[in-house]
Design a protein that fits this description.
The complex is a heterotrimer of chains A (296), B (316) and C (239). Helix content of chain A is 70%, strand content 2%. Chain A has 296 residues and is an all-alpha fold. In chain A, a hairpin with a 3-residue loop joins strand 1 and strand 2. The mean pLDDT of chain A is 85. Chain B has a domain of 213 residues. Chain B is globular, with a radius of gyration of 20 Å. The C terminus of chain B is likely disordered. Chain C is globular. The chains are: A mainly alpha (296), B mainly alpha (316), C alpha/beta (239). Chains A and B meet through helix 4, helix 9 and helix 11 of A and helix 4, helix 10 and helix 12 of B.
Chain lengths: 296, 316, 239
C-alpha cells in the first residue's frame, strides 16, 4: 500500500500536473480558435530550453527561471499566430492544423539547431524526498509540480469566471458568431488564448524536463496524452482539461501497478497507449468529454 | 566512375521518389479527394513494411516468420493489414470534426510504433529484420538489381496511379468530392457520408501499406526507425501540398520534386565539416517546415492544381 | 438625443447575387419599426446588412450623420446599435448574469449597476435565474436574456430578428409587451417579425419587403387597414 502511494500515486499526480498544464492550452486553443494545435508539444520543448539556457547562466533553482521560458513561448506563439495561423483563419480550420504540424517541426529544428539534440539534464543536485508521517515519501519536485498546478488552476478559474477578458474568452469559445454580434474584441481574446496557453506550456515543459531530462522530442512525446486529456475534459473547458490531465496521468502510471499478481497490469512500455485507448474509448462513447464540453 | 556513381545515385533517388509518390497518391485519396486528415502515415507505412517483411522472409529464430511467401503476396498482405488498421481508426473518427481524426491517427501511429519496438517475438524489436528478399532478385546480380527494383517500384506507381485516377473519375470519386466540398448537401442527396469516408480512409491506408512494404524490400532491412514520423508523415504532407492536392499527377510530381530537393541538399550538407553537417540537417528541417507554410498561404493549389474530371456522357 | 436610422438604396448579399436590392427605409428615433414580408423576402438579410454581417454592394446606411456601412460589426455596438439574432442568441454555457455582463464589454454603460437594474426590471423573470446557465432556460427566457444582453450597452437602436419565433402564445404576448416597455425608455427598435398582425398593432411603422425589394411602407394602422396588405400578408379578412 505504502509502496503504491510512494512509487505510483505521487509520481502519477506529478505527471498528471504536466499533462494538465499542457492540456489547458490545447483545450483553450481548440475551443476558441477551433483547431487541434499540433505544435503545442514542441512549444513546451521550446520553453523548456529557454529555461535551460538561462539555468546555464544563472545558477539558481530552475523553477525560478520559468518566466524566461514563458516569455520565449509567449513571443513565439504570438509571432507564429500572426504570421502563420492568422492568414489561414478564413479557410477551413484543417489548414491551420496542417500548418501547426509544420510549425511543430520548425520549433523542434530551432531547438536542435540552437541547443543540439543530446539529452540535457538540469543540474539541481540530488534532493532527498520529503518524508511524511514516517511512511510517505514524495519527491520535492513532484510536490512542487502538484502544488503549482493547483495554484494555477485556482487562478485560471478566477480569471475565466470573474475578469472581463476571461469571460470574453468563454463567450468566444461558446459561440464565436454571437461574440462578434456582441461586439467583443476577438483579436484580444485570441491574443490572451495564446499568452495563457504558451505560458502554461513553458511551465509544463520545465517540470517534465526536471522530472526526467530535456531533449528535442520532449514535448512531441507528450502531445498524445495531452490531446487525450483535452478531449477527456471536454473541448473548451479548461478546468475539464486539467482534470483530464490528472486522469490520464493516473491511468498511465497506475496501469503499470501490479494490481493482480506480481506483474505489472500493463507493461510500462505501453504507458502511452493507455492515454490513446482512453481517448478512443471516449470518442466512441462520449465524444463531448466527461464534463459536457462541446463537440466540434 | 564518377558517372556510374551519379547514375546509381539517380536510381536510388528515383526508387525512393517512387515510394514517396505512392504514399503521396494514397494521401491524395484521403485528403485530396476525401478531405480526411491523416497524421499517422508513418504508422500505416510501418504496418505494411513489417507485414510484407515477415511474410516474405525465411525462418528466423529471432522473430515471427518463415513463411517465405513471394513478394507480391507480401504486398497484398501489407495492404490488407494496413487497411484494417485504417478501418479501425476511421470507424471511430470519421463522423467527428477532422481534427479528431488527426489526433486519433497520430495516436494509432504511436501505438503501432510501440508494438513494433516492444514485441520482439514479432519484429525483433529495435534490432530489426534483415535479409528481406527483393522481388525478381534472380534476374540480375549486384547493383543491376537496383535497376530492376526501380522498374518494379514504378510499375507499382503506375498501377496505383491508374487505380487512383479511375477512382477520381468514377461516380464514387465524384460523390466523394461532393461530400468533401459540401457535406450537408451530399448527405441530403442521399449519400452515406460515413461509409464513403471510411472507404476512402481504408483505401488510402492500404496503399500506404504497400509503400511501406516496398521500402522494406528495397532496403532489405527494417528497424523501427523506418517509421520516423518526420520522414514519413511530414514529408508526404509537404509533397502533396506542394504538388497539388486533388490531382494525382500533382501528387507524383510533388513527391519527386520535394524528394529531390531533400536528397540533393543532403549531398551538399554532407560535405560540410561534421559539426556543421548535423546543424545543417536541422536547417533543412526548418526550411521544409517553412516551405509548408509558404505553400499553405501562397500556393494552396500546388504545382498541378485540381481539375474537375470532364463529364462523360454515355451514349445509349 | 437619439438619431434617425436611414437606409437608402441598399443592395446586399452573401458574396453571390444580391439578396436585397435597392431597399430604403427610415426609422425615427424612439419608434418601433417592423419589417414584414413572405419567407425569403430578405427581411433577416436586411437586418444583418444594417449590422454589417453581409456584403453591401450599393447604397448607404446612416445613424444620424454617421455612416454605418463599411463599419465592422464589432464597431457598431460602441456606436449605439446592438442586435439580437434569431437563434443561438445566448451564450449557453455561461450564466444569465455573465450573459448580461458580456453585453457591457464592447460599450461600457456609464453606470453599469443602474443599467443592470433597469434591464432586470424589464425582465423580472431573470432575477432568480441569474446564476443558471443560459442554455438551461426556456425559449422565452432565453429571448429575454438575449434582449437583456443587447440592452446592457445602453444602445440607441436595437435590431431584433424574429423575437417571438418558436415561442408559446403566452410568451409572445409578454415579448410584445416588453417591446412597448423598451420603447418607453427611449430606445428605437427595428425588428423582423412573422406575427405580422400583432407586430403591426404595436409598431409605429411597418415596412414590407417582397423579393428583396420595398413593397409597401406605412404606419402600423395604415398597413393594418390596407386591403392588399391584409389579403397578401395578414391572412385574409380583418379581425
Amino acid at each position: 500500500m505504502i509502496e503504491f502511494v510512494n512509487f505510483y500515486l505521487f509520481p502519477a499526480l506529478a505527471i498528471g500536473s504536466i499533462y494538465a498544464l499542457g492540456a489547458v492550452g490545447i483545450s483553450m486553443i481548440f475551443g476558441i480558435l477551433r483547431f487541434a494545435h499540433f505544435a503545442h508539444g514542441d512549444l513546451m520543448t521550446l520553453g523548456t530550453y529557454g529555461v535551460l539556457a538561462m539555468a546555464a547562466i544563472v545558477p539558481v533553482n530552475p523553477l525560478l527561471l520559468i518566466p524566461f521560458g514563458m516569455a520565449l513561448t509567449i513571443v513565439s506563439a504570438l509571432l507564429v499566430d500572426r504570421y502563420f495561423y492568422k492568414p489561414l483563419r478564413e479557410l477551413p480550420t484543417i489548414y491551420t492544423v496542417i500548418s501547426s504540424f509544420g510549425i511543430a517541426l520548425v520549433f523542434r529544428s530551432i531547438v536542435q539547431l540552437v541547443w543540439g539534440s543530446q539529452n540535457q539534464v538540469f543540474s539541481t543536485g540530488v534532493k532527498p524526498p520529503l518524508v511524511l508521517f514516517d511512511t510517505f515519501r514524495i519527491s520535492v519536485l513532484h510536490l512542487q509540480a502538484v502544488i503549482s498546478t493547483a495554484i494555477i488552476a485556482v487562478l485560471l478559474h478566477y480569471f475565466l469566471t470573474v475578469t472581463r477578458t476571461g469571460r470574453s474568452m468563454r463567450a468566444v469559445a461558446d459561440d464565436p458568431e454571437l461574440a462578434e454580434v456582441s461586439g467583443l474584441d476577438t483579436a484580444k481574446v485570441i491574443r490572451w488564448t495564446w499568452i495563457i496557453g504558451a505560458a502554461l506550456a513553458a511551465i509544463a515543459g520545465t517540470f517534465a524536463a526536471l522530472n526526467t531530462s530535456a531533449h528535442p522530442n520532449l514535448g512531441w512525446n507528450l502531445l498524445m496524452p495531452m490531446f487525450a486529456a483535452a478531449i477527456l475534459g471536454g473541448i473548451g473547458k479548461p478546468m475539464g482539461a486539467m482534470a483530464g490531465g490528472f486522469i490520464i496521468g493516473l491511468a498511465e502510471e497506475l496501469s503499470s501497478y501490479h494490481w493482480i499478481g506480481d506483474d505489472a497490469l500493463i507493461s510500462p512500455s505501453y504507458k502511452t497507449a493507455v492515454a490513446f485507448v482512453l481517448m478512443i474509448g471516449l470518442l466512441i462513447f462520449r465524444p463531448q468529454g466527461l464534463f459536457k464540453g462541446r463537440l466540434l | 566512375m564518377e558517372l556510374t556513381g551519379l547514375f546509381f545515385y539517380a536510381v536510388s533517388l528515383l526508387i525512393l521518389g517512387g515510394i514517396y509518390a505512392i504514399l503521396c497518391l494514397a494521401l491524395n485519396v484521403q485528403w485530396g479527394m476525401g478531405g480526411l486528415f491523416n497524421a499517422g502515415i508513418a504508422g500505416f507505412y510501418g504496418v505494411g513494411a513489417y507485414t510484407s517483411a515477415i511474410l516474405t522472409t525465411s525462418a528466423s529464430s529471432k522473430h515471427l516468420g518463415g513463411f517465405g511467401l513471394p513478394v507480391p503476396l507480401g504486398l497484398v498482405g501489407a495492404a490488407i493489414l494496413a487497411g484494417l488498421a485504417g478501418w479501425a481508426v476511421a470507424r471511430i473518427c470519421v463522423r467527428l470534426k477532422s481534427d479528431y481524426l488527426a489526433m486519433a491517427s497520430i495516436g494509432i501511429a504511436e501505438i503501432l510504433r510501440l508494438v513494433i519496438v516492444n514485441e520482439s517475438w514479432l519484429t525483433n524489436g529495435s534490432l530489426g529484420l534483415s535479409r528481406i528478399p527483393r522481388p525478381l532478385a534472380d534476374l540480375t546480380t549486384g547493383r543491376m538489381g537496383d535497376i530492376v527494383f526501380l522498374g518494379f517500384v514504378w510499375f507499382v506507381v503506375l498501377l496505383v496511379y491508374l487505380a487512383a485516377s479511375r477512382l477520381h473519375d468514377s461516380p464514387w470519386g465524384r460523390s466523394l468530392r461532393a461530400i468533401r466540398d459540401n457535406e450537408a448537401s451530399a448527405a441530403a442527396a442521399g449519400k452515406n457520408v460515413e461509409k464513403f469516408r471510411i472507404q476512402t480512409f481504408v483505401i488510402g491506408c492500404a496503399i500506404m501499406g504497400i509503400a511501406g512494404a516496398l521500402s522494406a524490400h528495397y532496403f532489405r532491412f527494417l528497424s523501427p526507425t523506418a517509421t520516423d514520423p518526420l520522414l514519413v508523415t511530414f514529408l508526404v504532407w509537404v509533397m502533396l501540398m506542394a504538388g497539388g492536392s486533388g490531382n494525382n499527377k500533382g501528387a507524383i510530381l510533388g513527391a519527386l520534386t520535394i524528394w529531390t530537393l531533400w536528397s540533393v541538399t543532403e549531398i551538399f550538407t554532407n560535405r560540410l565539416p561534421p559539426e556543421w553537417a548535423t546543424r545543417s540537417s536541422f536547417i533543412r528541417m526548418l526550411l521544409v517546415g517553412l516551405l509548408l507554410q509558404v505553400v499553405l498561404q501562397r500556393f494552396r493549389s500546388g504545382l498541378l492544381p485540381e481539375k474537375s474530371p470532364p463529364v462523360k456522357f454515355r451514349q445509349e | 438625443m437619439t438619431e434617425r436610422l436611414s437606409v437608402s438604396g441598399v443592395s446586399a448579399g452573401y458574396g453571390g447575387p444580391p439578396i436585397i436590392e435597392d431597399v430604403s427605409l427610415t426609422v425615427e428615433p424612439g419608434e418601433i419599426a417592423v419589417i414584414l414580408g413572405p419567407n425569403g423576402a430578405g427581411k433577416s438579410t436586411l437586418l444583418k446588412t444594417i449590422f454589417a454581417l453581409t456584403t453591401v454592394s450599393a447604397g448607404s446606411i446612416k445613424l444620424g450623420e454617421k455612416e454605418l456601412s463599411g463599419c465592422k460589426t464589432s464597431a457598431l455596438v460602441p456606436l449605439g446599435v446592438s442586435a439580437v439574432p434569431q437563434t443561438k442568441n445566448v451564450f449557453a454555457t455561461m450564466s444569465v448574469d455573465e450573459n448580461l455582463d458580456v453585453g457591457t464589454y464592447a460599450a461600457p454603460p456609464k453606470d453599469k449597476a443602474a443599467t443592470r437594474e433597469r434591464v432586470l426590471n424589464l425582465f423580472p423573470d431573470l432575477r432568480d435565474k441569474l446564476k443558471q446557465p443560459a442554455g438551461e432556460l426556456s425559449g422565452g427566457q432565453r429571448q429575454m436574456v438575449a434582449m437583456g444582453r443587447a440592452l446592457m450597452s445602453d444602445p440607441k437602436l436595437v435590431l431584433l430578428d424574429e423575437p417571438t419565433a418558436g415561442l408559446s402564445p403566452a410568451y409572445l404576448e409578454r415579448i410584445f409587451d416588453l417591446l412597448i416597455d423598451i420603447r418607453k425608455t427611449g430606445i428605437t427598435i427595428l425588428m423582423v417579425e412573422q406575427n405580422a398582425r400583432q407586430a403591426l398593432q404595436i409598431a409605429d411603422h411597418g415596412h414590407i419587403l417582397v423579393n428583396g425589394r420595398n413593397y409597401a411602407s406605412g404606419t402600423g394602422k395604415e398597413l393594418l387597414a390596407d386591403e392588399d396588405v391584409r389579403r397578401l400578408f395578414l391572412g385574409g379578412a380583418a379581425a
